[in-house]
Amino acid sequence: MAENKFFAEDGREIVLKADHLCIQFGGLKAVDDVNIEIKQGELYGLIGPNGAGKTTVFNLLTGVYKPTAGRFFLCGEDLTGKAPADVNKKGIARTFQNIRLFNNLTVIENVMVGLSNQIPCSVPESIFRLPRHRKSEREYYERALELLRVFKLDEYKDYLAANLPYGKQRKLEIARAMATNPKLLLLDEPAAGMNPNETQELMDVITFIREKFNITILLIEHDMRLVGGICEKLTVLNFGTVLASGATAEVLSDPEVVKAYIGE
């Protein structure tokens, strides 16, 4: 399907447009009529109580699940129903609640895995390590090292991923996602399990990469200090439906949002 880009009133491109997304498992509507619009360069939060449907939305946006109704667009291109690998190649990358690194590979090898879908070599060239493959491998090693420098992980490049401290494993997972050269980065509870110092460092990293790469970010997070500190806009889910959406300060002070989180 040809691209038909969407633009906001301020002229910025709408990178993500989720249009009436729904998914039903048996008789349960896990996500029902969710609409989200995120403009180029925005840092946008998706929040809600446990079981609200946040990760299900991520699974819809990355092709893990196919919606039973609705569509979603990346920079105007309809990606609904595409396989996860195709969605990633089009420009959506994600991290996970539970870190999913290749623990027996080194730090730099993990990032090079993220770069692998950009290597132009054929399978025979790779198997027999022909000259073009060796040249590409050197180039991608240097690109991976450059990304590690951005995340201040270059001194750990030869460590096994499993041997990194927890906070640095989180940063490595984001670095690997960034290696796929995404237009939209989805971060699923990036501060989970972090202490306050690690959370502050993560906030700085997320803000820095948004500015350095002019990337659009959508994150799920339960740490309201992080959400309030870096997100410009929020959508709140509750029982699979949108409870509130808008500027962060307004949404966090909405009585219905407060009630959903802490009760009457």
Explain this structure.
The protein is α/β, with parallel strands linked by helices and 264 residues long. It is built from 10 helices and 10 strands. It has helices at residues 54-61, 84-90, 107-115, 123-127, 131-150, 166-179, 196-213, 224-230, 248-252, 255-262; strands spanning 14-25, 28-39, 43-47, 69-74, 77-78, 92-94, 184-188, 216-220, 233-238, 241-247. β7, α7 (196-213) and β8 form a beta-alpha-beta unit. The radius of gyration is 19 Å and the shape is globular. The termini are far apart. Mean pLDDT is 89; it is low at 121-128.
Give, in order, the helices and strands: EEEHEEHEHHHHEHEHEEHH
Task: Report the helical percentage.
Answer: 25-40%
Mean pLDDT: 89
Largest pleated sheet: 6 strands, mixed
Shape descriptor: globular
The class by helix and strand makeup works out as alpha/beta
Strand order of the largest sheet: 6-7-8-3-9-10
- Return Rg in Å: 19 Å
Task: Report how far apart the termini are.
Answer: 47 Å
Q: Tell how many strands the DSSP assignment holds.
A: 10
Low-confidence stretches: 121-128
- The number of helical segments is 10
Percentage beta strand:
15-25%
